[in-house]
Amino acid sequence: MSKVKVAVLGPGNIGSDLMFKILRSKNMDMAMLVGIVESEGIKRARGIGINTSTGGIDAILADPEIKIVFDATSAYAHLKHAPLLREAGKFAIDLTPAAIGPYYVPSVNSEQLGNEMMNVNMVTCGGQATVPIVYAVSRVAGAEYAEIVSCVSSVSAGPGTRNNIDEFTRTTARALEVLGGADRGKAIVILNPADPPIFMTNTIYAKVKRPDVGLEVITKSIDSIVEEIQQYVPGYRYRVRPLLEGDKVTVGIEVEGAGDFLPVYSGNLDIINAISAATGERIAEGILAKGGAV
Given 14, 66, 125, 148, which residue is catalytic? Predict the structure, then answer.
């Protein structure tokens, strides 16, 4: 086995962009793009020679050679998909805010990725952009409270994103606590109708327990996290460098997409796709190291 066969479930904007990222993979073979209707995404994939199906998850379950499945559908749908994929012995990388598996943000808990994590919960796009910053603050100064505001272009938010807004805020807020280390977290998402469309922007506020550690220590911790994320997402950068006012830390982050399939203003989709693809790459590498066994 030279590459591990993977499938993308959901042929919308996220699934289509993810497909193009997987096509560059060293360890993954883009075996199938799956939907439930004959959509533009299905036609696009078929047009470049990718195997497609409108049979939904059943098409993936019927192929024992597919070892990794990227679920880019909806939180509601993933609740149904998760137990089926687990029973079939396939790794699920969940790009929905269903929050079934353990939260996974590589710059925070990459050491937890392994066979015991058969359902990898990628939190949300806002979570991937902001949880690492809260973690960077909390590990040196503690965090009594963390609040994030993710602002994305409305044209980059498709039906799936809009239908999952409530799950987005709940899942992101919880991840700020579980992985970010905040005692209490809150998440807000804004769909900005500006024309021309804006890049994804994220404002992170944290009320710290030990402001006496000083801005220099806090900034150094955040800088190291930003540099790590840039390995996956080169367009991830400061919009506002860390500020410390009393016990409140404020940071602004902007995300520019790579433009693989989606426009560069869709940094919100690009960040979760890029990090999910990198996660799949690591899982595939582990499978190959064991001779193809999951």
Answer: 125
